[in-house]
Amino acid sequence: MKIFFMSVAATLLFSASAQAQTSPAPTSDKIPLPSAAPLVAPAPAGKGARVMMLRWFTSDVARAEKFYQAVFDMTTVQRMGDNVRIMMFPGGAMPGMILVQSSDPKRLRGSFIAQVADVKATLAIAAANGGKLLNTQFSQNIHGQQASSSHFEDADGNVIELLQIRAAGK
Fold it and tell me: pTM, whole model, 2 decimals?
């Protein structure tokens, strides 16, 4: 399995020169990537590291793919069989996400934080697409910027925290 996910990362590293997809999803497993920006920067020097991918387990990969496309405008860049999707955030921002279908309930229940322009608007989109709002709220002035967040669950119970940062007083 480790080799499988290493090959996924390598596939993403060498796919940056493909053209953008503007039509319905092709039937092949490889989906063209936008070529506007490099997919990843060189690895950090020394002992530094960068998170490249989130491995996200789901009980229904097709449903999860549609959900993350709707809520975060993610793009599916590769389908690996029926049970795996590799997705990227807009602009190729890292980390990307590897959706893996699993029937093992112990694997479900991940969590990540996504910075968004508008927490309330993103929560509304999540709810409209089957997300369960958790009605949590955080707000604090941090180094002259106002940070606020709230959480929701996707249909598999994975928790996503939405974080909005803006200039204090706005």
Answer: 0.66
Mapping DSSP to helix (H, G, I), strand (E, B) and coil, where does residue 9 land?
helix
User: Collapsing DSSP states into helix, strand and coil, what is residue 6?
Assistant: helix
pLDDT (tens place) for every residue of the chain, 170 residues total: 444 443 444 444 333 323 233 333 434 444 554 444 444 455 555 666 677 788 899 999 999 999 999 999 999 999 989 999 999 999 988 889 999 999 887 777 888 889 899 999 999 999 999 999 998 998 988 888 899 999 999 999 999 999 999 877 66
Tokens linked to 106 = 């112990």
Domain 109-170, CATH among 3.40.30.10, 1.10.10.10, 3.10.180.10, 3.30.870.10: 3.10.180.10
